[in-house]
């Protein structure tokens, strides 16, 4: 949704979630930037996200997402950030929005994980997205709910904007979705 709101700009955000054995569950996506991700602002954002994860309990930064205006799914533009996240969380992943897959029946994220010091593709069979989650995602994009998202950039320009978007789906069926196997 962050990439939909800022489709003519590169965006970057953080995935938070939990790990159990070899299973990683993304619980939330926190949008950060639709301009350049400057080091000091990124560091502050990550510190605030870590604080948020501790306050919620049982959550941690588990990955990064990005989308480019050109539609490229290459990790190179965010590699330094991804490497830093991986230095703090060994199972970290990086996800790129593939604009070509933004159809009603395809997950539009292409994943990479760090293996032998290189970012390697995550197999499509390793990712579970429920049919209901896809259906609700299509609906909220069609309803242009993404226009109400605030990212950390927006918050820096206007501190009243909640970049954690805690009320974004309040009362919406999307909020009632459960993670697979829960």
Strand content: 15-25%
Low-confidence stretches: none
Number of strands: 6
Order of helices and strands: HEEHEHEEEHH
CATH homologous superfamily caption: Cytidine Deaminase, domain 2
- CATH level-1 class: Alpha Beta
- The shape is globular
User: How helix-rich are the residues, as a percent range?
Assistant: 25-40%
Strand order of the largest sheet: 2-1-3-4-5-6
Named CATH topology: Cytidine Deaminase, domain 2
Q: What distance separates the N and C termini?
A: 24 Å
**Nearest-integer average pLDDT:** 88
CATH architecture: 3-Layer(aba) Sandwich
Radius of gyration, in Å, reads: 15 Å
Overview of the structural elements:
The chain starts with a helix and ends in a 25-residue tail after the last helix. The protein has helices at 2-5, 39-56, 79-88, 131-142, 152-157, and strands spanning 11-20, 23-33, 60-67, 93-97, 109-115, 118-121. The protein is α+β, with helices and mostly antiparallel strands. It has a single domain, classed as Cytidine Deaminase, domain 2. It is globular and about 40 Å long. Strands 2-1-3-4-5-6 form a six-stranded mixed sheet. It contains five helices and six strands.
């Amino acid at each position: 949704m962050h990439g939909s709101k800022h489709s003519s700009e590169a965006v970057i955000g953080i995935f938070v979630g939990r790990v159990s054995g070899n299973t990683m569950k993304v619980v939330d996506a926190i949008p950060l930037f639709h301009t350049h991700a400057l080091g000091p602002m990124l560091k502050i954002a990550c510190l605030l996200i870590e604080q948020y994860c501790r306050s919620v309990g049982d959550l941690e930064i588990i990955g990064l997402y990005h989308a480019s205006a050109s539609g490229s799914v290459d990790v190179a533009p965010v590699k330094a950030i991804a490497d830093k996240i991986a230095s703090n969380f060994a199972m970290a992943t990086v996800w790129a929005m593939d604009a070509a897959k933004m159809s009603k029946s395809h997950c539009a994220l292409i994943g990479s994980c760090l293996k032998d010091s290189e970012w390697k593709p995550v197999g499509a069979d390793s990712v579970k997205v429920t049919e209901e989650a896809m259906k609700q995602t299509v609906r909220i994009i069609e309803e242009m709910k993404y226009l109400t998202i605030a990212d950390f950039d927006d918050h820096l320009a206007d501190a009243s904007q909640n970049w954690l978007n805690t009320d974004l789906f309040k009362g919406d069926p999307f909020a009632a979705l459960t993670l697979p196997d829960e």
